[in-house]
Protein backbone atom coordinates (compact mmCIF):
# COMPACT_ATOMS: atom_id res chain seq x y z
CA UNK A 1 0.00 0.00 0.00
CA UNK A 2 1.32 3.42 -0.97
CA UNK A 3 0.63 6.78 0.67
CA UNK A 4 -0.79 9.43 -1.61
CA UNK A 5 -1.19 13.15 -0.95
CA UNK A 6 -3.64 15.24 -2.98
CA UNK A 7 -3.08 19.00 -2.96
CA UNK A 8 -6.03 20.80 -4.48
CA UNK A 9 -8.24 23.62 -3.29
CA UNK A 10 -11.44 22.10 -4.73
CA UNK A 11 -13.18 19.75 -2.34
CA UNK A 12 -14.81 17.71 -5.13
CA UNK A 13 -11.42 17.09 -6.83
CA UNK A 14 -9.86 16.03 -3.52
CA UNK A 15 -12.74 13.67 -2.78
CA UNK A 16 -12.80 12.00 -6.19
CA UNK A 17 -9.01 11.61 -6.35
CA UNK A 18 -8.98 10.19 -2.82
CA UNK A 19 -11.66 7.71 -3.83
CA UNK A 20 -9.62 6.57 -6.85
CA UNK A 21 -6.56 6.16 -4.62
CA UNK A 22 -8.44 4.18 -1.98
CA UNK A 23 -10.09 1.95 -4.60
CA UNK A 24 -6.60 1.03 -5.79
CA UNK A 25 -5.77 0.01 -2.22
CA UNK A 26 -3.76 3.05 -1.11
CA UNK A 27 -3.94 5.45 1.80
CA UNK A 28 -4.78 9.04 0.86
CA UNK A 29 -4.61 12.46 2.51
CA UNK A 30 -5.77 15.83 1.18
CA UNK A 31 -4.49 19.39 1.61
CA UNK A 32 -6.44 22.39 0.38
CA UNK A 33 -3.54 24.89 0.29
CA UNK A 34 0.12 24.67 -0.79
CA UNK A 35 1.28 25.54 2.73
CA UNK A 36 -0.79 22.74 4.25
CA UNK A 37 0.42 20.33 1.53
CA UNK A 38 4.07 21.13 2.22
CA UNK A 39 3.58 20.72 5.94
CA UNK A 40 1.97 17.31 5.47
CA UNK A 41 4.68 16.22 3.00
CA UNK A 42 7.34 17.19 5.53
CA UNK A 43 5.69 15.39 8.42
CA UNK A 44 4.58 12.12 6.77
CA UNK A 45 6.17 9.72 4.29
CA UNK A 46 4.24 10.05 1.03
CA UNK A 47 5.08 8.09 -2.12
CA UNK A 48 3.09 10.16 -4.55
CA UNK A 49 1.69 13.69 -4.61
CA UNK A 50 -1.04 14.91 -6.94
CA UNK A 51 -0.47 18.65 -7.15
CA UNK A 52 -2.79 21.29 -8.57
CA UNK A 53 -1.10 24.21 -10.36
CA UNK A 54 -3.51 27.03 -9.55
CA UNK A 55 -3.87 27.26 -5.81
CA UNK A 56 -5.19 30.11 -3.66
CA UNK A 57 -1.80 30.61 -1.99
CA UNK A 58 0.42 30.38 -5.09
CA UNK A 59 1.46 28.38 -8.12
CA UNK A 60 1.92 24.65 -7.53
CA UNK A 61 4.92 24.48 -9.89
CA UNK A 62 6.85 26.84 -7.64
CA UNK A 63 6.35 24.45 -4.73
CA UNK A 64 7.48 21.45 -6.76
CA UNK A 65 11.24 21.58 -5.99
CA UNK A 66 10.53 21.82 -2.24
CA UNK A 67 8.01 19.01 -2.37
CA UNK A 68 10.44 16.70 -4.14
CA UNK A 69 12.89 17.39 -1.29
CA UNK A 70 10.42 16.29 1.42
CA UNK A 71 11.89 13.47 3.57
CA UNK A 72 10.28 10.65 1.55
CA UNK A 73 11.28 12.28 -1.80
CA UNK A 74 7.77 11.71 -3.22
CA UNK A 75 7.12 11.56 -6.96
CA UNK A 76 4.84 14.32 -8.18
CA UNK A 77 1.99 14.26 -10.68
CA UNK A 78 0.79 17.68 -11.73
CA UNK A 79 -2.90 18.32 -12.36
CA UNK A 80 -3.18 20.82 -15.21
CA UNK A 81 -6.16 22.69 -16.60
CA UNK A 82 -8.07 20.97 -19.38
CA UNK A 83 -6.31 21.30 -22.79
CA UNK A 84 -3.35 23.29 -21.44
CA UNK A 85 -0.28 21.98 -23.33
CA UNK A 86 1.90 24.77 -21.92
CA UNK A 87 1.01 23.66 -18.37
CA UNK A 88 1.91 20.07 -19.22
CA UNK A 89 5.27 21.13 -20.68
CA UNK A 90 6.03 23.30 -17.67
CA UNK A 91 5.11 20.47 -15.33
CA UNK A 92 7.53 18.02 -16.92
CA UNK A 93 10.30 20.61 -17.23
CA UNK A 94 9.89 21.42 -13.56
CA UNK A 95 10.68 17.85 -12.56
CA UNK A 96 7.20 16.34 -12.18
CA UNK A 97 6.95 12.64 -12.93
CA UNK A 98 3.87 13.08 -15.11
CA UNK A 99 0.78 15.22 -15.49
CA UNK A 100 -2.91 14.58 -15.82
CA UNK A 101 -5.56 16.89 -17.15
CA UNK A 102 -8.20 17.85 -14.64
CA UNK A 103 -11.45 16.14 -15.55
CA UNK A 104 -9.87 13.12 -17.25
CA UNK A 105 -11.43 9.72 -16.60
CA UNK A 106 -10.93 7.66 -13.44
CA UNK A 107 -9.40 4.97 -15.66
CA UNK A 108 -6.70 7.35 -16.95
CA UNK A 109 -5.93 8.60 -13.45
CA UNK A 110 -5.64 5.02 -12.15
CA UNK A 111 -3.30 4.13 -15.02
CA UNK A 112 -1.00 7.10 -14.32
CA UNK A 113 -1.05 6.24 -10.62
CA UNK A 114 -0.12 2.60 -11.24
CA UNK A 115 2.71 3.54 -13.61
CA UNK A 116 4.09 6.13 -11.20
CA UNK A 117 4.07 3.67 -8.30
CA UNK A 118 5.72 0.97 -10.40
CA UNK A 119 8.45 3.39 -11.40
CA UNK A 120 8.92 4.40 -7.79
CA UNK A 121 9.19 0.79 -6.63
CA UNK A 122 11.85 0.16 -9.24
CA UNK A 123 13.73 3.32 -8.27
CA UNK A 124 13.72 2.42 -4.58
CA UNK A 125 14.90 -1.10 -5.36
CA UNK A 126 17.73 0.32 -7.46
CA UNK A 127 18.87 2.76 -4.81
CA UNK A 128 18.37 0.13 -2.12
CA UNK A 129 16.64 2.51 0.26
CA UNK A 130 13.94 5.11 0.49
CA UNK A 131 15.30 8.23 -1.11
CA UNK A 132 18.85 8.77 -2.27
CA UNK A 133 21.75 6.41 -1.72
CA UNK A 134 24.61 7.82 0.30
CA UNK A 135 26.35 9.77 -2.42
CA UNK A 136 30.03 10.57 -2.57
CA UNK A 137 29.61 14.25 -3.31
CA UNK A 138 33.21 14.85 -4.31
CA UNK A 139 33.58 18.55 -3.53
CA UNK A 140 30.07 19.52 -4.56
CA UNK A 141 28.93 22.17 -2.10
CA UNK A 142 25.34 23.31 -1.58
CA UNK A 143 22.00 22.03 -0.40
CA UNK A 144 19.54 24.21 -2.31
CA UNK A 145 16.50 22.31 -3.63
CA UNK A 146 17.62 22.66 -7.26
CA UNK A 147 21.12 21.35 -6.50
CA UNK A 148 19.74 18.46 -4.44
CA UNK A 149 17.50 17.48 -7.35
CA UNK A 150 20.62 17.28 -9.54
CA UNK A 151 22.40 15.18 -6.88
CA UNK A 152 19.44 12.79 -6.82
CA UNK A 153 19.83 12.37 -10.56
CA UNK A 154 23.56 11.69 -10.11
CA UNK A 155 22.64 8.95 -7.62
CA UNK A 156 20.12 7.40 -10.02
CA UNK A 157 22.49 7.67 -13.01
CA UNK A 158 25.42 6.23 -11.07
CA UNK A 159 23.45 3.07 -10.32
CA UNK A 160 22.82 2.41 -14.00
CA UNK A 161 24.81 2.28 -17.22
CA UNK A 162 22.63 4.85 -19.00
CA UNK A 163 24.16 7.70 -20.99
CA UNK A 164 24.12 10.96 -19.05
CA UNK A 165 23.87 14.44 -20.55
CA UNK A 166 24.76 17.30 -18.23
CA UNK A 167 23.55 20.71 -19.36
CA UNK A 168 24.29 24.09 -17.87
CA UNK A 169 25.90 27.46 -18.43
CA UNK A 170 29.66 27.77 -18.33
CA UNK A 171 31.17 27.24 -14.87
CA UNK A 172 28.08 25.62 -13.31
CA UNK A 173 29.97 22.42 -12.42
CA UNK A 174 29.30 20.12 -15.37
CA UNK A 175 32.67 18.40 -15.17
CA UNK A 176 32.44 18.13 -11.39
CA UNK A 177 29.06 16.40 -11.71
CA UNK A 178 30.36 14.12 -14.47
CA UNK A 179 33.15 13.04 -12.11
CA UNK A 180 30.57 12.47 -9.36
CA UNK A 181 28.61 10.12 -11.68
CA UNK A 182 31.85 8.19 -12.32
CA UNK A 183 32.96 8.14 -8.66
CA UNK A 184 29.60 6.76 -7.56
CA UNK A 185 29.39 4.13 -10.28
CA UNK A 186 30.79 0.62 -10.27
CA UNK A 187 33.45 1.89 -12.68
CA UNK A 188 34.94 4.23 -10.06
CA UNK A 189 38.21 2.26 -9.80
CA UNK A 190 38.86 2.64 -13.54
CA UNK A 191 39.77 5.67 -15.66
CA UNK A 192 37.71 8.84 -16.06
CA UNK A 193 38.80 10.06 -19.49
CA UNK A 194 38.00 13.64 -20.55
CA UNK A 195 37.58 14.55 -24.21
CA UNK A 196 37.42 18.31 -24.72
CA UNK A 197 35.43 18.32 -27.97
CA UNK A 198 35.91 22.09 -28.39
CA UNK A 199 39.67 21.78 -28.72
CA UNK A 200 39.86 18.73 -31.01
CA UNK A 201 41.61 19.75 -34.25
CA UNK A 202 39.22 18.66 -37.01
CA UNK A 203 41.88 16.74 -38.96
CA UNK A 204 42.98 14.76 -35.91
CA UNK A 205 39.60 14.06 -34.27
CA UNK A 206 39.45 10.43 -35.32
CA UNK A 207 43.03 9.66 -34.41
CA UNK A 208 42.68 11.32 -30.98
CA UNK A 209 39.45 9.48 -30.24
CA UNK A 210 40.19 6.10 -31.80
CA UNK A 211 44.00 6.04 -31.92
CA UNK A 212 46.17 5.18 -34.90
CA UNK A 213 48.67 2.63 -36.14
CA UNK A 214 52.31 3.42 -36.81
CA UNK A 215 52.63 5.10 -40.23
CA UNK A 216 48.86 5.68 -40.55
CA UNK A 217 49.58 9.24 -41.71
CA UNK A 218 52.55 11.56 -42.06
CA UNK A 219 53.94 12.17 -38.59
CA UNK A 220 52.46 9.00 -37.05
CA UNK A 221 55.86 7.65 -36.07
CA UNK A 222 54.47 5.22 -33.56
CA UNK A 223 51.09 3.64 -32.84
CA UNK A 224 48.95 5.52 -30.30
CA UNK A 225 46.00 4.42 -28.22
CA UNK A 226 42.97 6.71 -28.55
CA UNK A 227 40.87 8.14 -25.73
CA UNK A 228 38.01 5.70 -26.36
CA UNK A 229 40.33 2.73 -25.76
CA UNK A 230 41.80 4.45 -22.69
CA UNK A 231 38.30 4.64 -21.19
CA UNK A 232 37.85 0.84 -21.36
CA UNK A 233 36.18 -0.27 -18.12
CA UNK A 234 35.73 3.35 -17.01
CA UNK A 235 33.89 6.50 -18.06
CA UNK A 236 34.38 8.61 -21.17
CA UNK A 237 33.43 12.25 -20.61
CA UNK A 238 32.66 14.22 -23.76
CA UNK A 239 32.96 17.83 -22.63
CA UNK A 240 31.40 20.52 -24.89
CA UNK A 241 29.83 17.72 -26.94
CA UNK A 242 27.95 20.31 -29.04
CA UNK A 243 31.29 21.19 -30.67
CA UNK A 244 31.94 17.67 -31.97
CA UNK A 245 32.22 17.88 -35.79
CA UNK A 246 29.43 16.09 -37.72
CA UNK A 247 31.81 13.49 -39.19
CA UNK A 248 33.07 12.61 -35.71
CA UNK A 249 29.46 12.45 -34.46
CA UNK A 250 28.75 9.79 -37.09
CA UNK A 251 31.83 7.77 -36.15
CA UNK A 252 31.01 8.09 -32.51
CA UNK A 253 27.45 6.91 -32.96
CA UNK A 254 28.77 3.69 -34.45
CA UNK A 255 31.11 3.16 -31.49
CA UNK A 256 28.21 3.69 -29.12
CA UNK A 257 26.07 1.15 -30.93
CA UNK A 258 28.73 -1.52 -31.40
CA UNK A 259 31.28 -0.75 -28.69
CA UNK A 260 33.90 -1.53 -31.35
CA UNK A 261 36.02 0.74 -33.49
CA UNK A 262 38.97 0.69 -35.83
CA UNK A 263 42.03 2.88 -35.05
CA UNK A 264 43.11 5.02 -38.02
CA UNK A 265 45.18 2.92 -40.48
CA UNK A 266 44.58 -0.31 -38.56
CA UNK A 267 43.17 -3.49 -40.09
CA UNK A 268 41.86 -4.65 -36.67
CA UNK A 269 38.84 -3.57 -34.68
CA UNK A 270 39.17 -2.93 -30.95
CA UNK A 271 36.53 -3.28 -28.27
CA UNK A 272 35.97 -0.73 -25.55
CA UNK A 273 33.47 -1.06 -22.75
CA UNK A 274 32.99 2.48 -21.49
CA UNK A 275 30.22 4.46 -19.88
CA UNK A 276 29.41 7.71 -21.61
CA UNK A 277 28.78 11.04 -19.91
CA UNK A 278 28.53 14.21 -22.02
CA UNK A 279 28.19 17.90 -21.19
CA UNK A 280 27.23 21.00 -23.06
CA UNK A 281 26.21 24.62 -22.58
CA UNK A 282 24.45 24.64 -25.94
CA UNK A 283 20.85 23.81 -26.81
CA UNK A 284 21.37 20.40 -28.43
CA UNK A 285 17.67 20.02 -29.24
CA UNK A 286 17.74 23.23 -31.28
CA UNK A 287 21.02 22.12 -32.89
CA UNK A 288 19.44 18.77 -33.79
CA UNK A 289 16.49 20.57 -35.36
CA UNK A 290 18.77 22.76 -37.47
CA UNK A 291 20.87 19.75 -38.51
CA UNK A 292 24.02 20.81 -36.61
CA UNK A 293 23.81 17.84 -34.25
CA UNK A 294 22.73 14.30 -35.05
CA UNK A 295 19.42 13.57 -33.39
CA UNK A 296 20.20 9.81 -33.19
CA UNK A 297 23.35 10.64 -31.22
CA UNK A 298 21.46 13.07 -29.01
CA UNK A 299 18.94 10.34 -28.26
CA UNK A 300 21.72 7.96 -27.18
CA UNK A 301 23.49 10.57 -25.09
CA UNK A 302 20.49 11.71 -23.14
CA UNK A 303 18.97 8.77 -21.28
CA UNK A 304 19.47 10.78 -18.10
CA UNK A 305 19.56 14.57 -18.37
CA UNK A 306 20.89 16.71 -15.54
CA UNK A 307 20.18 20.44 -15.87
CA UNK A 308 22.58 22.33 -13.63
CA UNK A 309 21.10 25.61 -12.41
CA UNK A 310 23.11 28.83 -12.78
CA UNK A 311 24.48 30.18 -9.50
CA UNK A 312 22.14 33.22 -9.58
CA UNK A 313 19.20 30.81 -9.29
CA UNK A 314 20.51 29.13 -6.16
CA UNK A 315 21.70 31.95 -3.99
CA UNK A 316 20.74 29.72 -1.01
CA UNK A 317 24.08 27.97 -1.60
CA UNK A 318 26.22 31.10 -1.65
CA UNK A 319 26.96 31.30 2.09
CA UNK A 320 28.09 27.68 2.21
CA UNK A 321 30.18 28.06 -0.95
CA UNK A 322 31.77 31.25 0.36
CA UNK A 323 32.62 29.64 3.70
CA UNK A 324 34.11 26.58 2.00
CA UNK A 325 36.26 28.53 -0.46
CA UNK A 326 37.30 31.23 2.07
CA UNK A 327 38.63 28.50 4.38
CA UNK A 328 40.27 26.68 1.48
CA UNK A 329 42.11 29.77 0.18
CA UNK A 330 43.10 30.92 3.67
CA UNK A 331 44.64 27.52 4.30
CA UNK A 332 46.33 27.42 0.91
CA UNK A 333 47.89 30.85 1.50
CA UNK A 334 48.95 30.19 5.10
CA UNK A 335 46.38 32.68 6.50
CA UNK A 336 44.20 32.28 9.60
CA UNK A 337 40.53 31.59 8.85
CA UNK A 338 38.53 34.77 8.18
CA UNK A 339 35.05 35.92 9.11
CA UNK A 340 32.80 38.09 6.97
CA UNK A 341 30.32 40.90 7.59
CA UNK A 342 26.67 40.66 6.51
CA UNK A 343 27.15 43.14 3.61
CA UNK A 344 29.88 40.93 2.19
CA UNK A 345 27.47 37.98 1.94
CA UNK A 346 24.62 40.25 0.81
CA UNK A 347 26.74 41.55 -2.09
CA UNK A 348 27.76 38.00 -3.08
CA UNK A 349 24.10 37.01 -3.05
CA UNK A 350 22.94 40.01 -5.06
CA UNK A 351 25.50 39.67 -7.87
CA UNK A 352 24.42 37.74 -10.99
CA UNK A 353 27.61 35.64 -11.50
CA UNK A 354 27.64 35.31 -15.30
CA UNK A 355 30.69 33.00 -15.01
CA UNK A 356 28.89 30.99 -12.30
CA UNK A 357 30.89 29.03 -9.70
CA UNK A 358 34.18 29.41 -11.57
CA UNK A 359 33.87 33.21 -11.36
CA UNK A 360 32.72 32.91 -7.75
CA UNK A 361 35.80 30.86 -6.78
CA UNK A 362 38.18 33.27 -8.53
CA UNK A 363 36.53 36.18 -6.77
CA UNK A 364 36.83 34.59 -3.33
CA UNK A 365 40.46 33.72 -3.98
CA UNK A 366 41.30 37.30 -5.08
CA UNK A 367 39.40 38.70 -2.11
CA UNK A 368 41.10 36.47 0.46
CA UNK A 369 44.51 37.27 -0.97
CA UNK A 370 43.89 41.02 -1.15
CA UNK A 371 42.64 41.11 2.47
CA UNK A 372 45.90 39.44 3.60
CA UNK A 373 45.92 39.30 7.46
CA UNK A 374 42.67 41.24 7.96
CA UNK A 375 40.44 38.91 9.99
CA UNK A 376 37.05 40.00 8.56
CA UNK A 377 36.02 40.36 4.91
CA UNK A 378 33.92 43.41 4.06
CA UNK A 379 32.04 44.17 0.86
CA UNK A 380 34.79 46.65 0.05
CA UNK A 381 37.25 43.79 -0.31
CA UNK A 382 35.26 42.56 -3.31
CA UNK A 383 36.25 43.66 -6.84
CA UNK A 384 34.81 47.05 -7.77
CA UNK A 385 33.10 45.61 -10.87
CA UNK A 386 31.00 43.32 -8.69
CA UNK A 387 30.05 46.05 -6.21
CA UNK A 388 29.21 48.44 -9.05
CA UNK A 389 26.97 45.90 -10.75
CA UNK A 390 25.13 45.18 -7.50
CA UNK A 391 24.57 48.89 -6.83
CA UNK A 392 23.44 49.40 -10.44
CA UNK A 393 20.97 46.56 -10.27
CA UNK A 394 19.44 48.02 -7.10
CA UNK A 395 19.24 51.41 -8.82
CA UNK A 396 17.90 49.81 -12.00
CA UNK A 397 15.00 48.34 -10.07
CA UNK A 398 13.76 51.78 -9.27
CA UNK A 399 11.65 53.68 -11.74
CA UNK A 400 13.92 56.46 -12.82
CA UNK A 401 13.04 59.02 -15.47
CA UNK A 402 14.94 58.58 -18.74
CA UNK A 403 18.31 60.40 -18.57
CA UNK A 404 17.45 62.68 -21.42
CA UNK A 405 14.24 63.75 -19.67
CA UNK A 406 16.10 64.22 -16.41
CA UNK A 407 18.98 66.22 -17.80
CA UNK A 408 17.51 67.84 -20.93
CA UNK A 409 19.89 70.68 -21.88
CA UNK A 410 17.19 72.64 -23.73
CA UNK A 411 14.99 74.69 -21.39
CA UNK A 412 11.25 75.30 -21.76
CA UNK A 413 11.89 78.45 -23.79
CA UNK A 414 14.17 76.55 -26.24
CA UNK A 415 17.39 78.28 -25.01
CA UNK A 416 20.59 76.30 -24.29
CA UNK A 417 22.37 76.79 -20.94
CA UNK A 418 26.11 77.43 -20.86
CA UNK A 419 28.03 74.14 -21.03
CA UNK A 420 29.68 74.61 -17.64
CA UNK A 421 26.35 75.34 -15.97
CA UNK A 422 24.75 72.38 -17.67
CA UNK A 423 27.61 70.08 -16.68
CA UNK A 424 27.44 71.21 -13.08
CA UNK A 425 23.70 70.64 -12.85
CA UNK A 426 23.97 67.15 -14.35
CA UNK A 427 26.92 66.34 -12.12
CA UNK A 428 25.10 67.52 -9.00
CA UNK A 429 21.97 65.54 -9.88
CA UNK A 430 23.98 62.39 -10.61
CA UNK A 431 25.92 62.77 -7.36
CA UNK A 432 22.71 63.22 -5.38
CA UNK A 433 21.19 60.15 -7.04
CA UNK A 434 24.32 58.10 -6.29
CA UNK A 435 24.30 59.14 -2.64
CA UNK A 436 20.60 58.35 -2.25
CA UNK A 437 21.17 54.90 -3.76
CA UNK A 438 24.28 54.38 -1.66
CA UNK A 439 22.39 55.06 1.55
CA UNK A 440 19.59 52.80 0.44
CA UNK A 441 21.91 49.91 -0.48
CA UNK A 442 23.84 50.27 2.76
CA UNK A 443 20.58 50.52 4.71
CA UNK A 444 21.62 53.94 6.10
CA UNK A 445 24.65 52.46 7.81
CA UNK A 446 27.42 55.03 7.49
CA UNK A 447 30.37 52.66 7.82
CA UNK A 448 28.88 50.31 5.16
CA UNK A 449 28.28 53.28 2.87
CA UNK A 450 31.91 54.37 3.34
CA UNK A 451 33.16 50.87 2.51
CA UNK A 452 30.99 50.62 -0.60
CA UNK A 453 31.74 54.07 -1.96
CA UNK A 454 35.36 54.44 -0.88
CA UNK A 455 34.48 57.80 0.76
CA UNK A 456 35.77 58.84 4.16
CA UNK A 457 33.21 59.39 6.89
CA UNK A 458 33.71 63.14 7.01
CA UNK A 459 33.45 63.43 3.21
CA UNK A 460 30.28 61.34 3.16
CA UNK A 461 28.67 63.46 5.89
CA UNK A 462 29.67 66.64 4.02
CA UNK A 463 28.16 65.38 0.75
CA UNK A 464 24.94 64.27 2.45
CA UNK A 465 24.68 67.76 3.94
CA UNK A 466 25.37 69.50 0.61
CA UNK A 467 22.61 67.53 -1.08
CA UNK A 468 20.30 67.88 1.89
CA UNK A 469 20.02 64.14 2.18
CA UNK A 470 19.27 62.69 5.55
CA UNK A 471 20.22 59.19 6.57
CA UNK A 472 16.61 58.06 6.29
CA UNK A 473 16.18 59.31 2.69
N1 LIG B 1 28.54 22.81 -6.42
C1 LIG B 1 29.83 23.10 -6.40
N2 LIG B 1 30.49 23.16 -5.24
C2 LIG B 1 31.79 23.49 -5.19
N3 LIG B 1 32.53 23.77 -6.27
C3 LIG B 1 31.93 23.71 -7.46
C4 LIG B 1 30.56 23.37 -7.60
N4 LIG B 1 30.24 23.38 -8.90
C5 LIG B 1 31.35 23.73 -9.56
N5 LIG B 1 32.39 23.92 -8.71
C6 LIG B 1 33.75 24.31 -9.07
O1 LIG B 1 33.60 25.33 -10.07
C7 LIG B 1 34.63 25.22 -11.04
C8 LIG B 1 34.00 25.07 -12.40
O2 LIG B 1 33.35 23.80 -12.46
P1 LIG B 1 33.37 22.89 -13.78
O3 LIG B 1 34.68 22.98 -14.49
O4 LIG B 1 32.88 21.55 -13.40
O5 LIG B 1 32.26 23.71 -14.62
P2 LIG B 1 31.77 23.46 -16.12
O6 LIG B 1 30.30 23.67 -16.10
O7 LIG B 1 32.27 22.13 -16.59
O8 LIG B 1 32.49 24.65 -16.87
P3 LIG B 1 32.69 24.84 -18.47
O9 LIG B 1 31.33 24.90 -19.09
O10 LIG B 1 33.37 26.17 -18.56
O11 LIG B 1 33.53 23.69 -18.92
C9 LIG B 1 35.47 24.01 -10.64
O12 LIG B 1 36.58 24.49 -9.90
C10 LIG B 1 34.55 23.21 -9.74
O13 LIG B 1 35.27 22.43 -8.80
UniProtKB/TrEMBL annotation:
Residues 3-117 form the Response regulatory domain. The keyword ATP-binding applies. Gene3D superfamilies: 1.10.8.60, 3.40.50.2300, P-loop containing nucleotide triphosphate hydrolases. The modification 4-aspartylphosphate is found at residue 52. One of its GO terms (biological process) is phosphorelay signal transduction system. Pfam families: AAA_lid_14, Response_reg, Sigma54_activat. Residues 140-369 form the Sigma-54 factor interaction domain. InterPro entries: AAA+_ATPase, AAA_lid_NorR, CheY-like_superfamily, Homeodomain-like_sf, P-loop_NTPase, Sig_transdc_resp-reg_receiver, Sigma_54_int, Sigma_54_int_dom_ATP-bd_1. It comes from the Bacteria. Keywords: ATP-binding, DNA-binding, Nucleotide-binding, Phosphoprotein. The keyword Nucleotide-binding applies. This is Sigma-54 dependent DNA-binding response regulator. It comes from Citrifermentans bremense.
Amino acid sequence: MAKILIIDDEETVCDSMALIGRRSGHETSCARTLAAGLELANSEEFDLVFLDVRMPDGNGLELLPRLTQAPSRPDIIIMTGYGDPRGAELAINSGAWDYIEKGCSAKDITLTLVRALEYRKQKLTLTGARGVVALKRESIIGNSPSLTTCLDLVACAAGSEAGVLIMGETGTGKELFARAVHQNSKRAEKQFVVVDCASLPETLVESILFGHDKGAFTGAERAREGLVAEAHGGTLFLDEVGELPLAAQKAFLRVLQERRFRPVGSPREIESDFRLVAATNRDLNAMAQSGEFRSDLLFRLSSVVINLPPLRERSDDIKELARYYMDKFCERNGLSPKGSCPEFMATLMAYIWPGNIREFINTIERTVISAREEPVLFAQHLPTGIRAQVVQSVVGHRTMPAPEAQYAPVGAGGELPRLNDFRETVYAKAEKQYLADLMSVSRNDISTACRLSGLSQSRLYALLKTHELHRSQ
